[in-house]
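Can anyone check this?
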Amino acid sequence: MHKGVYCLLLRCTTAQKIKIGAIGEIEFDKGWYVYVGSALGSGGLSRVERHIRFYRERYRKPKWHIDYLMEKIRLEEVVCAETEERLECILAKNVGGAGISKFGCSDCFCETHLFYRKDSPLEEILTAFEKTGLKANVHKIV
């Protein structure tokens, strides 16, 4: 399987508090959230397929920060790109902006890998991939 990086675009239709594992309860505003992740392990970009399967089927207990969030808000789109390089943190920096502190970044020094936008961030995310030197592929979740 090809390796790479990805962004999950999630839409929160109503403000709500969600318990995110050990982080605890977090207030999520109505709007869009962008989670930046990497898929550089042996399974490569099949990690994205696992995220989608978890979102659709809830086939196991939540394990990662993003699992807790996907239990409560809607996964709308996935943007991914193939790469063998560790570009997840650079992509997160290029997405930037307001975010949820300490979310999804326990294995790096970033402030967060989950960013908030009031409106759909798709075009902005595509620009962040381009700025990172990546060719993005968009997948709509139905």
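Reply from J.R.: I decoded it. The two ends are 23 Å apart (CA to CA).
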